[in-house]
């Protein structure tokens, strides 16, 4: 049985979601009413999916998501909020969120999103991925995709799952163009605006991780995508 961490400060909505997901989705749902309580629960147990309301007391959902990402860069996170502003959606994805749902929403839609995330996490394209290399030399750096680690001598930088996937795609096409659509479909399975904004943030982080070697550069190719240049 998959376990869900649900952080929702509205007790009525929280109990409704908990009951529905446990009954219809057959999940075990741990319900917390604020961000601090949710962080404590995550520190003690393992969860397969997190659902965080953004507007919560003590610790808001975005802050909670950022702290959860420091503990586990891989666990799927869905942010839920009554705010529908583009800036908030971009913030959700920039923090490493995997999905975003705007209140009021149908519980059936939330269940569909949860199942889609779990399917994506448990059923990657193993047939194609199995034959791809997992270790790369990038100038003075060494990148281990499986360990999600970039090394430069004794310096090591742990990267998130999506950062690792993006860097591997760039490495596989080193000195060639990686199209924006190819990256988005491969990693996010959707080339929508918000996923594009999220990818831009990850690219900025990768540039920062590789900045110590002047022979390594990730450039934008106007109208096409990106290129990992290694001289």
Strand order of the largest sheet: 2-1-3-4-5
The ordered string of helix (H) and strand (E) elements is EHEHEHEHEHHEEEEHEHHEE
> What is the CATH superfamily of the largest domain?
Response regulator
Q: Name the CATH architecture of the largest domain.
A: 3-Layer(aba) Sandwich
Low-confidence stretches: none
The CATH class name of the largest domain reads Alpha Beta
Separation, N- and C-terminal Cα atoms: 49 Å
With helices defined by DSSP (H or I, 4 residues minimum), what is the helix count? 9
Helix proportion: 40-55%
Q: How would you name the oligomeric state of the polypeptide chains in this document?
A: single chain
CATH topology annotation of the largest domain: Rossmann fold
- Apparent shape: elongated
Radius of gyration: 19 Å
The number of distinct structural domains comes to 2
The major beta sheet can be summarized as:
5 strands, parallel
Mean pLDDT: 88
| Total strand segments | 12
Helix vs. strand class: alpha/beta
What is the beta-strand fraction?
15-25%
Q: What can you see in these coordinates?
A:
- This protein has 231 residues and is an alpha/beta fold.
- It has 2 domains: 120 residues, Rossmann fold (3-Layer(aba) Sandwich), CATH 3.40.50.2300; 103 residues, Winged helix-like DNA-binding domain superfamily/Winged helix DNA-binding domain (Arc Repressor Mutant, subunit A).
- Helices cover 43% and strands 24% of the residues.
- The chain has 9 helices and 12 strands.
- The protein has a 5-stranded parallel sheet with strand order 2-1-3-4-5, with helices on both faces.
- Strand 11 and strand 12 form a beta hairpin.
- Helix 2 runs parallel beside helix 3 and helix 7 crosses helix 9.
- It is elongated, with a radius of gyration of 19 Å.
- The N and C termini lie far apart (49 Å).
- The mean pLDDT is 88.
């Amino acid at each position: 049985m998959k376990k869900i961490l649900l952080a929702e400060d509205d007790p009525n909505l929280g109990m409704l979601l908990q009951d529905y997901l446990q009954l219809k989705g057959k999940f075990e749902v741990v319900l917390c009413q604020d961000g601090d309580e949710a962080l404590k629960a995550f520190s003690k147990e393992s969860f397969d999916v997190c659902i965080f309301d953004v507007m919560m007391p003590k610790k808001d959902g975005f802050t909670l998501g950022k702290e959860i990402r420091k503990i586990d860069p891989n666990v799927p996170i869905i942010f839920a909020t009554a705010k529908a502003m583009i800036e908030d959606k971009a913030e959700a994805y920039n923090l490493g969120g995997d999905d975003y749902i705007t209140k009021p929403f149908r519980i059936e839609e939330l269940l569909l999103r949860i199942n889609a995330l779990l399917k994506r996490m448990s059923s990657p394209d193993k047939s194609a991925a199995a034959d791809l290399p997992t270790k790369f030399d990038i100038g003075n750096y060494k990148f281990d995709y499986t360990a999600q680690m970039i090394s430069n001598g004794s310096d090591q930088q742990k990267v998130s799952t999506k950062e690792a996937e993006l860097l591997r795609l760039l490495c596989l096409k080193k000195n060639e163009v990686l199209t924006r659509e190819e990256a988005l479909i491969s990693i996010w399975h959707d080339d929508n605006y918000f996923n594009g904004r999220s990818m831009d943030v990850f690219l900025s982080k990768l540039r920062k991780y590789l900045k110590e070697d002047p022979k390594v550069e990730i450039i934008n190719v106007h109208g096409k995508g990106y290129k990992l240049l290694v001289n």
